Amino acid sequence: MTEALKKVAVITGAGSGLGAATARRFHRDGWTLVLGDLRAEGVGALAQELGATALTCDVADEDQVAALVAAAVERHGRLDCMINNAGILGAIGPVGRTPARDFNRVLDIMVSGVFYGTKHAANAMGEDGGVILNTASLARIGAWANHSYTTAKHAVVELTRSTAVELASRGIRVNALAPGNVVTGMTSSLSGGKKAAHDRALARNPVPYVCTADDIADAFAYLAGPSARGITGQVLVIDSGLSTAVVPPAYHQAEDRFVD
Fold this sequence. Notes:
Number of strands: 7
Largest sheet: 7 strands, parallel
Shape: globular
Oligomer: single chain
Number of domains: 1
Order of helices and strands: EHEHEHEHEHEHHHE
CATH architecture: 3-Layer(aba) Sandwich
Radius of gyration: 19 Å
Structural class: alpha/beta
């Protein structure tokens, strides 16, 4: 891919976890990257590794998100893909003891942040359209996490769908990914470390495999590419079958019988 033809992607929450894995995957595919993260040190080191641009960005601040998108256009002349990935686990505990400021901070990051990224990316994308991708979660289908996180991820899905309808006529596709049981530094903090989180996930998943950050990055790359040109307004679940496992796999291995 020549420099003139390189496509440009902005990734938020790119300093670690899913965002960092996605940045590395897009770099291998030849994309030019502008990376944002609240933690300057991590995203700066990654940008240096990949030859990308890094900006400190709190996605709860619209001006900072706008500046991240503007940097892509000013430095590279275009924006082809926006990945709204930044997130936190947020307030954990009973609803009766959850401080309002903590609940609202989660919504500011994971709902308003996606709104700001979508808004400014859509304004920046040209006549050739583009792709906007949002990180959702299995929490978007039920009470899989704490109250603030679950609320936020439900909102991300509906914002994905509503903006997909509006932006389709401009050639802008909007989709979301819903990872499940992916072991990252953030998710493993609740499970006693990465090995404990991996073992716990493996025991729950119908498919005996724990999806990795690289698997999520591969899915982002697919949705951003030409093979997904007919896909918009969708949520791609990547969870080794966890969300479909209402009964455990062993249920189907029981002794043959017919119950009437």
